[in-house]
Amino acid sequence: MLSTAIGRLRFIGFFEGTSFLVLLLIAMPLKYWADFPEAVAVVGALHGGLFVLYILAAIWAAIRHRWSILKLGAACVASVLPFGPFILDRKLLKDEQ
């Protein structure tokens, strides 16, 4: 899986998407309902790093596989939508096979 640009994008996308959901569904409620802002600080920093890796992996996959600018844009938009990386992963898996 990690031997191809798309495989790396899918791998990083899984963790980036998971960190985004943890940030939205666990850390944010802890911040506002349980007065525990440290959760957002930790998960937010982790998610930020994974987001940067995801964008870099998407750019690398676009270069290696000669994606159109629209396909690269769709990958970038997917990174800011809840469940977006998982939906993109399904499409990439279908394209890869």
Summarize the SSE layout with pairings.
Elements: H1 5-33, H2 38-65, H3 69-78, H4 84-96
Helix pairs in contact: 1-2, 1-4, 2-3, 3-4
- In DSSP terms, counting alpha (H) and pi (I) runs of 4 or more, how many helices? 4
Q: Which consecutive residue ranges, at least 5 long each, have pLDDT under 50?
A: none
Which word captures the global form? elongated
What does the average pLDDT come to?
92
Gyration radius (Cα, Å) is 15 Å
What is the helical fraction, as a range of percent?
A: over 70%
What's the helix-strand series?
A: HHHH
Strand content: under 5%
Q: Please state the structural category.
A: mainly alpha
| Topology, number of strands | 0
Report on the structure:
This protein is an all-alpha fold and 97 residues long. The protein has one domain. 82% of the residues lie in helices and 0% in strands. The chain is built from four helices and no strands. Helix 2 packs antiparallel against helix 3 (69-78). The longest helix is centred in the N-terminal third of the chain and has 29 residues, at 5-33. The chain is elongated, with a radius of gyration of 15 Å. It starts with a helix and ends with a helix. The model has no long low-confidence stretch (mean pLDDT 92).
Summary, kept brief:
The protein is mostly helical and 97 residues long.
Keywords:
4 helices; elongated; mainly alpha; 97 residues
